[in-house]
Write a structure and sequence with these properties.
The complex is a heterodimer.
Chain A lengths: L1 E7 L2 E7 L5 H8 L18 E4 L2 E4 L12 E3 L12 H8 L9 H14 L5 H7 L11 H13 L1
Parallel strand pairs in A: 1-5
Antiparallel strand pairs in A: 1-2, 3-4, 3-5
Helix pairs in contact in A: 2-5
Chain B lengths: L4 E4 L3 H7 L4 E4 L5 H6 L7 E4 L9 E3 L3 E5 L4 H6 L1 H6 L1 H8 L4 H4 L4 H7 L6 H7 L3 E4 L3 E3 H4 E3 L2 E2 L7 E7 L3 E8 L6 E9 L4 E6 L6 E2 L1 H9 L24 H18 L1
Parallel strand pairs in B: 1-3, 2-3
Antiparallel strand pairs in B: 4-5, 5-10, 6-7, 6-10, 8-9, 11-12, 12-13, 13-14
Classes of the chains: A alpha+beta, B alpha+beta.
């Protein structure tokens, strides 16, 4: 057991958690931020991607203790004053989702890409999203959505 | 995942003092955490070494590139110094896993784990690396002992990996179509005296293919290994690739690497 102190979506949080608590579990079960999804739970599918200190990572494969003291952004932290983030808008507009299960991770990965590469090519988008698996869309509309968001960010 | 005690070590001394027969060092955790979640490994203590400052960073001298054990793949692939000194090492790092894995995974973790299809061990063999631990220096050729086995003793911690800068080098891999790990990866490095052809993914442990190294040391051209018939009896044989296919892939990837040098 130990104290986990994080800044999650701009809010300071402090909770006791056992040392084997995964960041994904901490977010979902201790903070009730269930927008972060757990798909495969083996760090393959990317549904659990969040940002830690500005970089995307798979929260099912990081210990909460391991990121203690960090700034975390989840899908819930993207909106401003009730307005969707341009990446979320683009996914909605261009049908970058069907069932929506992979979407939180897909959006968080894509936002990280645009932080590092403002105008990615189709190949760069596909390469970057290698760790995010979607079983509905066939990826085409996801790539289009990321390109659209790149013009708005 | 079974519970354990998490420790964050300040320095190598503290890390090795905390180590016991039921502990593991934690770097990026890209293998350790999934293995523990699946119940393949259990530890009483996890000793996080990421916060030890001395273990991160890249130093380039005239003859070598030294990378701290806790340096992340993304740092190696983005490093201008590495790109300039050993471009193939930078592109190897860029090809590991996916961006999220590269944001967490470390070079020391990859080497200490010694997965039979990991990319970095081939770089160590091809680039005559020296593994610096908190106790000694180990030549790469004596470090990788077998499947998931290394020369590391309990509580011994990798601090840095020193790669010899080659005249020319290239790493080529045939990735698994779904998971992208190396079904076969070949790292060719031409040094002043000789050529190393390090192979990962093909057998239970990374190795230096003496036959191809010798042929290429005599004549550094892909024609000198063209059509070489490698012994496949010790090669991995699974649903992804038969041993014979792997033997053929080793030659194909080696030729690609020589041509890309």
């Amino acid at each position: 057991m130990g104290k986990i102190s994080l800044e999650v979506n701009g809010r300071k949080v402090e909770k006791e958690a056992s040392d084997n608590t995964l960041l994904s579990t901490f977010l979902r079960e201790h903070l009730q931020l269930t927008g972060t999804h757990i798909g495969c739970d083996t760090s393959q599918c990317g549904a659990c991607v969040v940002h830690v200190d500005g970089n995307s990572l798979k929260s099912c494969t990081a210990l909460a203790a391991d990121v203690n003291g960090s700034k975390v952004t989840t899908i819930e932290g993207l909106e401003t004053n009730g307005k969707m983030h341009p990446m979320q808008e683009a996914f909605k507009k261009l049908h970058g989702l069907q069932c929506g299960f992979c979407t939180p991770g897909m959006v968080m990965s894509a936002v990280d890409l645009l932080q590092k590469n403002k105008k990615p090519s189709d190949t760069e988008i596909r390469d970057w999203l290698e760790g995010n698996i979607c079983r509905c869309t066939g990826y085409q509309n996801i790539v289009s959505a990321v390109k659209e968001a790149a013009t708005k960010m | 995942m079974k519970d354990f005690n998490y420790h964050s070590a300040k320095d190598s001394k503290e890390a090795s003092k905390l180590a016991s027969s039921s502990s593991a060092f934690l770097a990026g955790g890209m293998t350790t955490i999934p293995s523990m979640k699946l119940g393949l490994a259990t530890y009483k203590d996890l000793i996080d070494i990421k916060n030890i400052k001395k273990l991160s960073g890249i130093k380039v001298s005239g003859k070598s590139v030294t990378i701290g054990a806790a340096t992340k793949h993304v740092e190696v692939s983005n490093s201008k110094d590495v790109k300039k000194a050993i471009p193939s090492l930078s592109s190897l790092a860029e090809g590991i896993g996916d961006p999220q894995v590269r944001n967490r995974g470390t070079i020391g973790g990859s080497i200490a784990n010694n997965d039979p299809s990991a990319d970095y061990p081939s770089a160590c063999i091809a680039l005559n690396a020296t593994i610096h631990t908190n106790e000694r220096k180990i030549e790469a050729a004596k470090f990788f002992k077998g499947m998931f086995e290394t020369a590391l003793k309990k509580g011994e911690l990798i601090e840095a990996i020193e790669f010899q800068i080659p005249e020319k080098s290239s790493y080529q891999k045939h990735p698994n179509p779904a998971s992208r790990y190396a079904i076969v990866g070949v790292y060719v490095a031409k040094h002043k005296g000789d050529v190393n052809v390090a192979v990962t993914g093909a057998k239970s442990c990374v190795y230096n293919d003496k036959e191809m190294s010798k042929a290429l040391s005599g004549n550094f051209s892909s024609s000198s290994i063209d059509g070489m018939d490698l012994d496949s009896s010790e090669m991995n044989n699974d649903m992804h690739a038969s041993a014979e296919f792997r033997a053929s892939l080793v030659v194909t990837q080696a030729k690609k690497a020589v041509d890309a040098c």
